[in-house]
Amino acid sequence: MKHTYHTTGTCCWQFDIEIENGIIKEIKPYGGCSGNLQGICALAKGMKASEVANKFSGIRCGNKPTSCPDQLSHALKEILDNDK
């Protein structure tokens, strides 16, 4: 199933995420640091959404209270909670 998540507090303003049976099939970021986000999305592809959410949760970008990986974690947790 495809989902759209609008981030807060990061340069990346949106993630389009496709999850099937709890596994991340695709993540498309909008904005942010292109190379870093491409790497994060490539690493997450094929992994359990719950595992990625746990690993990325709480990561900060400089002195900001969040980061693109942390926002992806929020997105994945929201998706998983809504799919229950």
From TrEMBL:
Domain TSCPD: 5-79
Keywords: DNA synthesis, Nucleotide-binding
UniProt GO MF annotations: nucleotide binding; ribonucleoside-diphosphate reductase activity, thioredoxin disulfide as acceptor
tRNA processing among keywords: no
Presence of the UniProt keyword Cytoplasm in the record: no
EC number(s) on file: 1.17.4.1
One Pfam family recorded for the sequence: TSCPD
Superkingdom, natural source: Bacteria
Catalytic activity, reaction form: a 2'-deoxyribonucleoside 5'-diphosphate + [thioredoxin]-disulfide + H2O = a ribonucleoside 5'-diphosphate + [thioredoxin]-dithiol
A biological process term (GO) from this entry: DNA biosynthetic process
Family, similarity comment: Belongs to the ribonucleoside diphosphate reductase class-2 family.
Protein name: ribonucleoside-diphosphate reductase
Origin species: Candidatus Limisoma faecipullorum
Lineage: Bacteria, Pseudomonadati, Bacteroidota, Bacteroidia, Bacteroidales
